[in-house]
Design a protein that fits this description.
Blueprint: H1 9-13, H2 16-21, H3 27-40, H4 42-46, H5 65-83, E1 85-86, H6 92-95, H7 103-116, H8 133-139, E2 143-144, H9 162-169, H10 190-201, E3 231-239, E4 243-247, E5 254-257, E6 278-287, E7 292-296
Parallel strand pairs: 1-2, 5-7
Antiparallel strand pairs: 3-4, 3-6, 4-5, 6-7
């Protein structure tokens, strides 16, 4: 079983993006589809939602909103370009974050794909309206084409380095980071060569880690099933200055107070935990009347 966060799903379901994708469905269906697609490709789905709508911290509304928006925008752009995008399946929302592209050109790429079919190679993108040579040079290395006419189109190797990559392929069995000096030129330095080598050694790899399978306790379904002393699996859903909230699968998150996180003194919950981390926690106290659950990481 996989647990998928539903944060921001309601925002998507009522958004322009949600209405464009599913004009004939109501908000409940749109939200359910969004949650399901997050398991398939969370990055491709979450870029359709304004980052602060999925919860970026306890005090997100207290900081300068323009600076927060700018910082979150830069982070999303960095992640999207690091992972890369399949140009034959990506939505316009995802393509918008690719370096060199914007809303207009992203829409043109999708429209051209709809009219002419899948792109056979990266060079085919030059036929897209408003895709100039400079823009292509900037974005091509972040766009992927799986099953195209050139296998290198499904890697992070830039088209301008294909000839070099093909030379390196001939010696791939004998290449490592210490003997790439033979390929160094005035235009290509060692860092670029190392990046190309890594791509050739593990083509089409996705730099993201594999999703972890997770199971809640099969004996616990509601707060009434909890007893002090139980040790249960959970998922960290939120971090605050005073502690962390953990989903136990009982429709009510429990709280690990910062004082219950470690035998040593810590100044922030982030020293011990991160969002969506899988943890084992001990139930300390249950207030069923107020729906409060106190948890601990100590003496597990």
């Amino acid at each position: 079983m996989f647990v998928v966060s539903e944060a921001g799903a309601s925002v998507y379901s009522a958004s322009k993006a949600g209405r464009e994708e599913f004009p004939d469905q109501d908000v409940t269906v749109r939200g359910a589809v969004s949650i399901g697609r997050r398991l398939m490709d969370p990055l491709a789905e979450l870029v359709k939602i304004e980052p602060k709508s999925i919860g970026v911290g306890q005090y997100q509304h207290d900081v300068d909103q323009s600076r927060l928006r700018e910082s979150l925008q830069q982070t999303v752009e960095s992640v999207v370009n690091y992972v890369g995008v399949d140009v034959n399946t990506a939505s316009k929302h995802l393509l918008t974050y690719i370096s060199g592209l914007g809303p207009t050109l992203a829409q043109n790429i999708v429209d051209y794909r709809s009219e002419h079919g899948p792109y056979a190679n990266r060079r085919a993108l030059l036929a897209v309206p408003k895709m100039g040579a400079k823009t292509f040079e900037q974005c091509a290395g972040f766009l992927r084409i799986a099953g195209g006419s050139n296998p290198l189109d499904n890697t992070a190797v830039h088209p301008e380095r294909y000839a070099l990559a093909e030379k390196m392929v001939k010696q791939l069995d004998h290449l490592n980071e210490t003997n790439l000096q033979q390929f160094v030129t005035e235009d290509v330095g060692l860092p670029t060569l190392i990046d190309i080598l890594h791509e050739l050694q593990k083509p089409t790899r996705d730099p993201r880690t594999q999703a972890e399978e997770f199971h809640f306790s099969p004996d616990v379904h509601t707060i009434d099933d909890l007893r002090p002393g139980m040790v249960l699996p959970g998922i960290v859903t939120n971090l605050s200055a005073f502690g962390a909230f953990v989903d136990l699968g009982v429709h009510k998150d429990g709280l690990i107070h910062i004082s219950e996180m470690s035998e040593r003194r810590i100044s922030s919950p982030s020293e011990m935990l991160r969002l969506h981390q899988h943890v084992q926690v001990r139930v300390v106290e249950i207030d069923r009347q107020r729906g409060r659950i106190q948890l601990s990481l100590k003496r597990i």
